[in-house]
Amino acid sequence: MKIILADDHPVFTAGVRAYLSHIPDCRVVASVSSADALVQCLESTPCDLVITEFSMPMTRIGDGLHLLSYIRRHHPHTWLVVLTTNDFPVVLYQIINSGVNGLLHKSDAIPEIGKTIRHLGNNTPYVGPSFQTLLQNGMDEQGTYLIPSPRETEVLRLYAAGHSLRDIAGRLSKSVKTVSLQKASAMKKLGLRNDIELGRYCAAASGDNIRPQGQEDWFLPEPGGRKRAPAA
Questions:
Q1: Residue 221: which region, alpha, beta or left (left: phi > 0; alpha: psi -120 to 50)?
Q2: Where is region (Disordered) located (predicted)?
Q3: How many CB atoms lie within 10 A of CB 221?
Q4: By residue range, what is the domain housing residue 196?
Q5: Contact 116/126 with Cβ under 8 angstroms?
Q6: d(CA 171, CA 225)
Q7: Angle at which helices 176-190 and 150-160 pack, to 10 degrees?
Q8: CA-CA distances (angstroms) from residue 172 to 21, 62, 130, 152, 156?
Q9: For every residue of the chain, which 3-state class applies, written as one string?
Q10: Predicted confidence band of residue 145 (pLDDT cuts 50, 70, 90)
Q11: Are residues 14 and 97 in the same domain?
Q12: CA-CA distance, 151 to 58, in Å (whole number)?
């Protein structure tokens, strides 16, 4: 099995590589330290499995969820395992819903990587022990994950980016009262009590992304499957 490792912490990558060297039929063919480098590596280096951090430096991909979505669309036959320290249940659910084959916390025992590899090919993703309780806590009484609507999510991201409720209302052609209610509803679903926790959530959901102006979602295809060209 050919494996690509993606993580911006070299010591962690070295530890995973050393562990994988003792697993029969597993071989690390490349390691990268950013989302952009991972995308480029996948274009030139055939592999069977990608083991990646969710939050890595990125300039041309919108956020961690966009990275996973991109890999799933453009490399559908490549297994995908995420290792992360993200602890927001709703973000973890979104990671799983993106189609990954495994989700591990970086504090899980390293043999969990081996368990995840042996689980590949099953219909359900392997979730490490550190996340199982967190995911259960992210459900309501009916066992449904509490997910903000797309518009509520948009309001949260704009607010966390520094826009006032009045600015957001003007941008979305809504009343300030409507935008305020959408913000409050989204925060309640996410279990966020104040703006500090909101900021932490938005950073976690985006993977602390960096997007220079004019390069938003550069790798994501337009309708019809065409890639967007980079801005001049």
A1: beta
A2: 212-232
A3: 13
A4: 150-206
A5: yes
A6: 28
A7: 100
A8: 52, 20, 39, 11, 13
A9: CEEEEECCCHHHHHHHHHHHCCCCCCEEEEEECCHHHHHHHHHHCCCCEEEEECCCCCCCCCCHHHHHHHHHHHCCCCEEEEEECCCCHHHHHHHHHCCCCEEEECCCCCHHHHHHHHHCCCCCCEECHHHHHHHHHCECCCCCECCCCHHHHHHHHHHHCCCCHHHHHHHHCCCHHHHHHHHHHHHHHHCCCCHHHHHHHHHHHHCCCCCCCCCCCCCCECCCCCECCCCC
A10: low
A11: yes
A12: 25
pTM for this prediction: 0.68
Does 86 score more than 90 pLDDT? no
Q: Letter for the amino acid at 93? A: Y
Same structural domain for residues 40 and 122?
yes
**Which of residues 200 and 127 earns the better pLDDT score?**
127
Q: What are phi and psi of 51, to 5 degrees?
A: -110, 115
